[in-house]
Design brief:
This protein is an all-alpha fold. The protein is built from four helices and no strands. It is 67% helix and 0% strand.
Length: 91
């Protein structure tokens, strides 16, 4: 299912932005996957702080993308938590 997003904080098309971040994770080459997941998580964390998506939906979407990119649960959780903390988003 699609995560509900809304225009907020100057983000005019949050659905497209979210999809782009998730696609980047799923398409990342071997060896870049963890870094790409972290980068996407930071971008999506900024959407959370802007109020464009809830932290719960952001985590769910990132976890699904990470699993699709063959990341482990532990690596996914670490990337999301680190990114959310670095962006000051409620993790």
């Amino acid at each position: 299912g699609l995560c509900p997003t809304r225009s907020a904080g100057g983000i005019s098309s949050p659905d497209a932005l979210l999809a782009a971040h998730l696609r980047a994770v799923e398409a990342a080459p071997e060896g870049r996957r963890r870094a790409t997941l972290y980068g996407a998580a930071r971008g999506i964390a900024r959407m959370v702080t802007a109020g464009a998506i809830t932290a719960e939906h952001a985590r769910a979407a990132l976890t699904a993308a990470g699993l699709a990119a063959q990341q482990t649960d532990r690596d996914i959780r670490a990337a999301i938590s680190g990114a959310f903390t670095d962006e000051g988003a409620a993790a």
